[in-house]
Each structure stands twice: as C-alpha cells, then as structure tokens.
Amino acid sequence: MRAAVLHEIGQDKLEVLDDVEAVGFGPGKVKIRVRATGLCHSDVSAMNGVLPQPAPFIPGHEGAGEILDVGDGVTNVKPGDRVLVCWLPACGACPACKRGQTQLCLAGFMNAGTPNFKRPGGDVFGFAGTGTFTEEVVVDAGCAVPIPDDVPFDIAALIGCGVTTGLGAAINTADVAAGSSVAVIGCGGVGISAIQGARLKGAAQIVAVDPVASRREAALGFGATEAVAPDALGDAKQRITAGEGFDYVFEVVGKSATARTAYETTRRGGTLCIVGAGALDDFLQLNMFELFFDEKKILPSMYGGGDVLTSYERAISLWRAGRIDLESLITHRVQLAEINEALDQMRSGTALRTCIEI
Q1: How far apart (Å, rounded) are the C-alpha atoms in residues 126 and 325?
Q2: Among candidates 257, 233, 259, 258, which has minimal Cα distance to 246?
Q3: Could you tell me where the beta strands, DSSP code E, fall in the chain?
Q4: How confident is the model at residue 113 (pLDDT cuts 50, 70, 90)?
C-alpha cells in the first residue's frame, strides 16, 4: 500500500512509497482504511526532531476513515464503521484515568515505540502510535472512535486533534470568562480553534496574533475582534487593556520566546495557557519574584485539557448547530502523492489546515 515515509529525523521531505504494509493486527486491534487526514504542526515538529519520535516513521495523527477489520475482543467498532483516529486513547485503569484526567493517560504514548508498519527494508513506526499518511493503519481499538454518518471524514479528522486541542484550551483548561479580554498567539488550525472557543465562552475582546497576513485576516472571520502582527501586540495591549494586560493569553506556537511574550502580555492575576508543543531543550525563563508577585496562572493544556471523547461529542454538536465553523478551517486539499506541497503550505503559513485526501 501507499504511505508517506520520513527516512531520517531532520529531513524536510516525505517519500511516498507503495511497498509499505500495516502490521500488528490481532486481539484488541483494528485496521482502518484512512480516507482523510489533516497535516498538524506536530507532524512537522516530529520530522525536525522537536518532538521525540523514532524513525523511519509515517507522520499523521489527525485522521478519519472506515474500519476494515477488528481483532478478537474488540466490541466498540465493527467492519464498515466510520471512525476518527484518537492518537491519545485512554486506558481507563491508570491513576490519571481514574482521576478523570484521561488526557494525561500514558498508554497511548507507549504505542509510539512499537512499529506498526514495515517495508522490505525493515520496520517503520507510526507517529504517536498511529501514522495516518497512509492508506491503511493498524491501531489499538481505543484509537478508533465511531462518528455519526452526517460527519464528513475531513471534518472528523480535524476534530481528532486540532479542533479538540484549541477548543478545549479555551473551554476546559482556561475556562474563559464571559466579558473577558483574550489574546491568541499563533493562528493556525489550533489557534483558530482557540479563538472559536473563546468566542463561545463570551470573551469581549479576542486579539489574534500572527506574522502571516492571510492568517490574521482569516482569524477575523472566526471570531477575533482584532488581528495584529507580533510587533503590534504591545500596542494592542496598551489600547485594549490600558497597558494592564489581557485576562487570558494563549500561546499556540510552542516556543519559549513566544511563551515569554505571552507571559508579559498577561495581566497580573490573569491566565497564560500554553497550547503549543515545544522542544525538550527549549526552556522558559521566569524569575521567582515575578512568579510570586504577579500571581499569573500558567496552565499547560494537553489535547484540550479534558476527556477527549466528551470533547469530540461537544465539537460535533457545536458544528451541527453552526456555532463553530470547521469547513473553513480547511483552506487547502491535496492527494497523498502531493504531501510535500502540504508541508510547504504549512511552513509558509498559507494554510490553516491542509486536508490530505486518501
């Protein structure tokens, strides 16, 4: 079957091959025919080594498709079911799951170290234990979440990661208060979803911050009340908050420099929400006095900061009701053979989300 493979960490291009086989099928597993998958910035971060991932590997974790086969003991889905791919399934038994913090379950991460593909030359890993830049993938049954018939595969794929992450950051983690002021730094698919979440929660001012003009313009259509380039954020802070700082600032880039800017843009007693996934060796520096004196809350948000199955259902309900716009998040579409075009679109910032149709 066809799949897009990264041979070595640090390469910037994927090679689409037709000699890849999905392996590992058996008890507790399912085989999925992938129909649509989004390109998330985390895929690129894994390719360049920012996020740890063994290679060679197949990127992609934001996907949807149909169940081809199920292993012994699988009862949540059957062949023919339409599903989205959950890259961080909850085991239901670990301490995090028992506390209700299923987004912190580590069971899914354990899958990342087990190859679920192979080629004539050897094993191939799937990113985050999945790997959706392919025609078929074998994953744990918990990774396959049934979706209603009225939800298109491309919309379901977005809900599988970017939408859930951004919406959840605003709704679950930060719990944005009605009438508050918000700034969102980084306005790709996840940042736009955070903007939509802040709008749903009733934020009065939502400032979108991004260096790409087209993304700033797009953010206004999703609920931002103003959109500025990074060098104009200080002026926006002065005009909108009289220099005090925003009630909530979302960092959706994953870099210490933007996180520091976000901290300085948050008012005393306000909330900084870290949404971007950064590198192990990129350290955010804060001094002990400012931590004490400013009393700013720093809230990391992992996969939307709540139970992902509940978050999926909520996103579908909001989409059906017209309260969130998911169709417009998909600004580009390519076929699997054109995957490197999608990478260029993301790196240049021209795409909010590119859908790879398989």
Answers
A1: 30
A2: 233
A3: 3-5, 15-17, 21-22, 29-38, 57-58, 62-70, 82-85, 117-119, 122-126, 136-140, 144-146, 181-185, 205-209, 226-228, 246-251, 266-274, 297-300, 330-335, 353-357
A4: confident
Query: Rounded to whole angstroms, how far apart are CA atoms 53 and 242?
Result: 44
Residue located via tokens 């949807």 = 64
- Report residue 256 as tokens: 């210490």
CA atoms within 13 Å, Cβ hemisphere of 282: 15
* Model confidence pTM above 0.90: yes
Decide if 130 contacts 139 (C-beta within 8 A). yes
Segment 44-98, tens digit of pLDDT: 999 999 999 999 999 999 999 999 999 999 999 999 999 999 999 999 999 999 9
Give the Cα separation of 237 and 150 in Å (integer). Answer: 42
Which one, of 132, 32, 26, 52, lies nearest residue 87 by Cα? Answer: 132
Beta bridge partners of 273: 250, 299
- Determine the residue type at 46: A
